[in-house]
């Protein structure tokens, strides 16, 4: 065997850029025509080809933007998923396009943790220094820091209102400047970045050869405007030299501030190191942001595959428009404005009705579909509870068939969630369960002595509630329906009123034999009791107008309190 030799530096750089060798890669010449190498332990993958990670196979499949297909979800550690997501650039109000992405990924994280028992360690960056923040601060004549803190707090409140679980930690860019500078220095040491005379630092795309373009392809890369000293038009800024009236920090290249992409690479690496399980964001961030993150991290860590799975959510479009909802297009609806007309549950159901990576149309029709689905579930819940209380009389149910239907639904839901978190299939499975339950809850006029099966309906309700609780939909509407009086006083008053009305209505409906009436005549209430029936109907209609719905089922009645809509909502 030929001895290990030192390869000339130009050749090593060329080989490293093409095959993702680390700087301490050993090359061994085994024959005049054969060269073998041993890459460093942290290096995985060659070129643009995705390498299936080694580790714990969850049994789930997820669509990976790196391969453009579903892949088995394999985590580095059993029961733990490291997850990084790009947070907001806090220069303005968050809008529904943002909300849609954050809610969809919140749903996926809930599924991973609450269905499949995976501990999701989620880190999110807050971009609190950026060209847009600086411009907006100048317009408002306030400091960029004050502007960013104001909109950061509003963003967090919006997420709370949407029931989005917070990450393990929010990390601000401005509080990680030393780490960002050190990260840039590491990329320069590895000869994948260079500084200009003006004090800018650029990533050298040519230094990584054809490994650039894992998400979108190198042919889709377009240069960003910048210094004329760039070696390649595609090179992008890691550090920007300071300009008048801009915040700046000290660095080896002079005063300046970070480029956009470097913040995420640095912060993700500072928490998770050289390997990341899952990276998420809107599809509009795939290029150039996520593409450049990948290039930076793999150049710094000298590895061929930094992030194993990239998940991207589809755009939110206004109905009839091909354009995404965006601040730059001035076609957005703020989260706060939206929640004045619709509930959090309705928006979350709206998101559940489409796959997370699909585009979604925002319209009254699509939101009404979400509202209608929730109303159907709520109506079934009240009917099933009325049946369980003995207030709703039905024919004998096919209990065995219902238990089988429930077991089948449970299996279908798990299969759908394991298949790229297919929430539309889950909702369809639940609505089918509700449909079959409703078929057995048809009221009959006269009670019979058929056997009753309340337990199976209790199982239906418990399971449906559990599924939607996992997905972040609170069918109990604790906050919304009971905000008037959390002690339950309102419900007790309604219960007493409905019971009194039922007693009056039962008396009014009672029949008695009338003198002179033929024996075959149909019994009917006495004419003197008709005003009582009319009063009962009037009360039912009046209560419905304020959100209390009473349903008469033969001689019995049930009631429910529905969430009142904000004023003006019906005009939408």
Automatic annotation (TrEMBL):
<protein>
    <recommendedName>
        <fullName>cysteine--tRNA ligase</fullName>
        <ecNumber>6.1.1.16</ecNumber>
    </recommendedName>
</protein>
<keyword id="KW-0030">Aminoacyl-tRNA synthetase</keyword>
<dbReference type="InterPro" id="IPR014729">
    <property type="entry name" value="Rossmann-like_a/b/a_fold"/>
</dbReference>
<keyword id="KW-0479">Metal-binding</keyword>
<dbReference type="GO" id="GO:0006423">
    <property type="term" value="P:cysteinyl-tRNA aminoacylation"/>
</dbReference>
<keyword id="KW-0436">Ligase</keyword>
<dbReference type="InterPro" id="IPR032678">
    <property type="entry name" value="tRNA-synt_1_cat_dom"/>
</dbReference>
<comment type="function">
    <text>In addition to its role as an aminoacyl-tRNA synthetase, has also cysteine persulfide synthase activity. Produces reactive persulfide species such as cysteine persulfide (CysSSH) from substrate cysteine and mediate direct incorporation of CysSSH into proteins during translations, resulting in protein persulfides and polysulfides. CysSSHs behave as potent antioxidants and cellular protectants.</text>
</comment>
<dbReference type="Pfam" id="PF01406">
    <property type="entry name" value="tRNA-synt_1e"/>
</dbReference>
<keyword id="KW-0862">Zinc</keyword>
<keyword id="KW-0067">ATP-binding</keyword>
<dbReference type="GO" id="GO:0005524">
    <property type="term" value="F:ATP binding"/>
</dbReference>
<dbReference type="GO" id="GO:0005739">
    <property type="term" value="C:mitochondrion"/>
</dbReference>
<dbReference type="GO" id="GO:0004817">
    <property type="term" value="F:cysteine-tRNA ligase activity"/>
</dbReference>
<dbReference type="InterPro" id="IPR024909">
    <property type="entry name" value="Cys-tRNA/MSH_ligase"/>
</dbReference>
<dbReference type="InterPro" id="IPR009080">
    <property type="entry name" value="tRNAsynth_Ia_anticodon-bd"/>
</dbReference>
<keyword id="KW-0648">Protein biosynthesis</keyword>
<comment type="function">
    <text>Mitochondrial cysteine-specific aminoacyl-tRNA synthetase that catalyzes the ATP-dependent ligation of cysteine to tRNA(Cys).</text>
</comment>
<comment type="similarity">
    <text>Belongs to the class-I aminoacyl-tRNA synthetase family.</text>
</comment>
<dbReference type="GO" id="GO:0046872">
    <property type="term" value="F:metal ion binding"/>
</dbReference>
<feature type="domain" description="tRNA synthetases class I catalytic">
    <location>
        <begin position="77"/>
        <end position="371"/>
    </location>
</feature>
<keyword id="KW-0547">Nucleotide-binding</keyword>
<dbReference type="InterPro" id="IPR015803">
    <property type="entry name" value="Cys-tRNA-ligase"/>
</dbReference>
């Amino acid at each position: 065997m030929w001895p290990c030799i030192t390869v000339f530096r130009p050749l090593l750089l060329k080989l490293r850029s093409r095959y993702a060798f680390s700087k301490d890669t050993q090359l061994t010449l085994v024959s005049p025509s054969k060269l073998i190498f041993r890459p460093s332990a942290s290096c995985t993958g060659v070129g643009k080809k995705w390498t299936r990670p080694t580790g714990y196979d969850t049994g789930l499949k997820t669509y990976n933007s790196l391969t453009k297909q579903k892949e088995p979800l394999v985590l580095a550690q059993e029961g733990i998923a490291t997850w990084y997501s790009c947070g907001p650039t806090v220069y303005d109000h968050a809008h529904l396009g943002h909300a849609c992405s954050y809610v969809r990924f919140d749903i996926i994280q809930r599924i991973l943790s609450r269905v499949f028992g995976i501990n999701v360690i989620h880190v999110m960056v807050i971009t609190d220094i950026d060209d847009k923040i600086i411009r907006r601060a100048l317009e408002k004549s306030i400091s960029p820091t004050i502007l960013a803190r104001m909109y950061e707090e509003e963003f967090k409140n919006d997420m709370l209102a949407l029931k989005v679980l917070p990450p393990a930690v929010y990390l601000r860019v401005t509080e990680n400047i030393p780490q960002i500078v050190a990260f840039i220095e590491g990329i320069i040491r590895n000869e994948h970045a260079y500084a200009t005379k003006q004090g800018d630092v650029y990533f050298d795309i040519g230094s990584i050869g054809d490994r650039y373009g894992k998400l979108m392809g190198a042919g889709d890369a377009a240069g960003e405007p910048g210094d004329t000293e760039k070696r390649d038009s595609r090179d992008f800024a890691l550090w920007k030299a300071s300009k008048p009236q801009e915040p700046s920090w000290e660095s080896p290249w002079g005063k300046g501030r970070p480029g956009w992409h470097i913040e995420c690479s640095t912060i993700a690496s500072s928490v998770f190191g050289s390997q990341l399980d899952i990276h998420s964001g809107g599809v509009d961030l795939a290029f150039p942001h996520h593409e450049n993150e990948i290039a930076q991290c793999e150049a710094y860590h000298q590895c061929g595959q930094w992030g194993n799975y990239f998940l991207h959510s589809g755009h939110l479009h206004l109905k009839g428009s091909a354009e995404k909802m965006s601040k730059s297009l001035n076609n957005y609806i703020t989260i706060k404005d939206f929640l004045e007309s619709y509930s959090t549950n309705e928006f979350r159901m709206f998101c559940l009705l489409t796959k997370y990576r699909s585009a979604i149309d925002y319209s009254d029709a699509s939101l009404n579909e979400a509202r209608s689905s929730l109303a159907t579930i709520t109506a079934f819940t009240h009917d099933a509870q009325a049946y369980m209380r003995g207030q709703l009389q039905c024919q004998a149910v096919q209990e065995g068939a219902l238990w089988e239907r429930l077991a089948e639904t449970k299996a279908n839901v798990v299969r759908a969630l394991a298949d790229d978190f297919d929430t539309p299939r889950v909702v369809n499975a639940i609505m089918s369960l509700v449909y079959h339950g409703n078929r057995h809850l048809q009221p009959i006029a006269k009670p019979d002595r058929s056997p009753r099966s309340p337990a199976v309906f209790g199982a239906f309700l418990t399971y449906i509630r559990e599924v939607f609780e996992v997905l972040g939909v609170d069918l109990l509407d604790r906050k919304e329906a009971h905000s008037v009086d959390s002690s339950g006083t309102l419900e007790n008053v309604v219960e007493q009123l409905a019971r009194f009305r039922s007693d009056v209505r039962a008396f009014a409906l009672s029949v008695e034999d009338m003198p002179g009436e033929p024996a075959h005549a149909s019994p009917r209430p006495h004419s003197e009791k008709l005003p009582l029936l009319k009063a009962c109907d009037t009360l039912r209609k009046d209560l419905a107008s304020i959100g209390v719905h009473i349903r008469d089922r033969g001689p019995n009645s049930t009631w429910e309190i529905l969430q009142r809509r904000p004023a003006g909502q019906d005009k939408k």
